[in-house]
Amino acid sequence: xxxxxxxxxxxxxxxxxxxxxxxERLARxxxxxxxxxxxxxxxxxxxxxxxxxxxxxxxxxxxxxxYIDRNILALLVGPIRLDLNISDFEVSLLQGPAFAIFxxxxxxxxxxxxxxxxxxxxxxxxxxxxxxxxxxxxxxxSFGSLFLLRLGxxxxxxxxxxxxxxxxxxxxxPRQLPRAMAIFSLGISLGTGMSFLIGGLVVEMVxxxxxxxxxxxxxxxxxxxxxxxxxxxxxxxxVLVYSIREPRRRGGLLxxxxxxxxxxxxxxxxxxxxxxxxxVSFPVATAFLGIFGYGMAxxxxxxxIRTYGLSTGEAGTLFGVVYVIFGPLGTLFGVRLAERLQAxxxxxxxxxxxxxASCGLWVFGVVGxxxxxxxxxxxxxxxxxxxxxxxxxxxxxxxxxxxxxxxRAQVTALQIFFANIIGMTVGASGIAFLTxxxxxxxxxxxxxxxxxxxxxxxxxxxxxxxxxxxxxxAVDEAEERAASTELS
Length: 488
Description:
Elements: H1 6-16, H2 22-28, H3 49-71, H4 77-84, H5 88-95, H6 97-105, H7 107-114, H8 119-136, H9 143-157, H10 161-171, H11 177-206, E1 212-214, E2 218-220, H12 222-231, H13 234-242, H14 265-273, H15 276-279, H16 281-308, H17 312-343, H18 349-367, H19 374-390, H20 392-402, H21 405-438, H22 445-465, H23 468-487
Antiparallel strand pairs: 1-2
Helix pairs in contact: 1-23, 3-8, 3-10, 3-11, 3-13, 5-6, 5-9, 5-21, 6-9, 6-21, 7-10, 7-21, 8-9, 8-10, 8-12, 8-13, 10-21, 11-12, 11-17, 11-20, 16-17, 16-21, 16-22, 17-18, 17-19, 18-19, 18-20, 18-22, 21-22
């Protein structure tokens, strides 16, 4: 007779005691035991395929909008620096910390709501709020006002990923979820690429306008008009998202009556800390990769402009085309390869694939910015974008596949917290810090990009190596929960 792993015992104890008093439950979560989770009814059936795909498509569009709105500032570095009289480092504060502070910290309480409340409403209000604040960036007249508005964009976007990940896990069966999450994650590549493609076109379109007079707003400069054009369409999307049906939750921990139990935050923390090697190490690893990814998105167009003399429109189009084409290809390829690894018997398939992609990313991330010509730099950019996008499906679905339903949005928020407090802040500001204060030369941005890529990808690989065994154990736990549902 085989012996269940210790992590599975922990999960059974949590499930078996979840109807007890808070004190008793808190004392026993994470302690090995033999009790099994009792369920009085099976999970509800999944939604019809066409409607689930409609929801996935709508959330993908929302994710694209979110990346367009957060990244558009990267194309406006020049005019914003000129009009507001600020440095690269101050621009990086607008790109990184201003957005990341609320995006990361508010994702945690929003996720707790998403694990207990109507998720589609949370997402819809978030879209409306970030779209409105993006448009309002067009009225900013100082660094301080633009910083506050970027905080608002981050606050609104915090309401998208955690509820969306939880929502998709209830619309798609476990075997379909990695592919669904990969398609949702296409929003990162498509949104990043389109922010530079569309943004570049908009910037070129309004470049000849010194000032434009808008009703109720007054005179604005061309870069301010860009924020209005980019932000306002999201208000219409929020109405569509609000109309999406909320599905029944499945795959959760149930009480004695077979109902989903609301788990208190302190119990959530205890549950996660007993599995810290996975629930801390994995988000930290993705945070290191986030430093590279956010840094590249924030500064690569500026690198092309300064190093090779491209115009804003040319840099935006070039970077955007590479992202729009090779980002989605990388994501779709990545999920297929991760599925093959899983089918070959690798219990840690998703973590293992991210590790392999990170090794390749280290090479192209370091070498790319050092190329002597724009043509060679773009040749190196293609595999970098491909590999950076290839692990997005695995990164998004890995924790959803092994986490109880009531904790999924919160675990996604934890991942966002690490990826953005560390990734977005260090990625944007770290490159600017090296350029301004270490190399003290605007033209040295290429070396800043190369150094950041080398260090972060190396640390990501080392951290992911510690996640392989804990993730395999978590897969065993998840399969035990699924088996107990079928037996009830």
